[in-house]
Amino acid sequence: MFKSTKAFSGFSVDDIPKAKAFYSQTLGLDVSEANGMLDLQLATGGHIIVYPKPNHVPATYTILNFPVSNIEQAVDELTKRGVKFQHYDGEYGTDAKGIAWGAGNGPNIAWFTDPAGNIISVLEEPA
């Protein structure tokens, strides 16, 4: 039934202007705004709707993943742009920069949050 529809995802934030600045200026995505919502255009051709929600509660899981070829370079660049990376202990423990090297036999990955507290990651694609 939905095989040929152009589905998209969405998530909420508590401040659209802050989200717009973060996703367009800090992360460098193409962002448009209409009807009080944002539309994030992805390199894959897909898009994500970001909508305001007065009682917004940040997602407790990763809402968006950005594959990169070099995780250290991406983390360093984002850090220069003011992004603060999450630090975790245990199985998915991170180093001083916030990178989990091969977390759980998965990719090298680092997590950060948007201004609304939603979790985002950069993860290194296999060479």
Roughly how many Å apart are the termini?
37 Å
Task: Please report the total strand number as a whole number.
Answer: 8
Strand content: 25-35%
Order of helices and strands: EHEEEEHEEE
Helix content: 10-25%
Q: Give the overall average pLDDT.
A: 93
Uncertain spans: none
Shape descriptor reads globular
Largest sheet: 4 strands, mixed
- Radius of gyration from the CA trace? 15 Å
Count, helices: 2
In what order do the strands lie side by side in the largest sheet? 1-4-3-2
- Class derived from helix and strand content: alpha/beta
Describe this structure in words.
This protein has 127 residues and is α/β, with parallel strands linked by helices. Helices cover 17% and strands 32% of the residues. The chain has 2 helices and 8 strands. The protein has helices at 16-26, 71-80, and strands at 9-13, 30-34, 37-41, 47-52, 62-68, 99-100, 109-113, 119-124. A 4-stranded mixed β-sheet has the order 1-4-3-2, covered by helices on one side. Strand 2 and strand 3 form a beta hairpin. The chain is globular, with a radius of gyration of 15 Å. The protein starts with 8 loop residues before the first strand and ends with a strand. The mean pLDDT is 93.
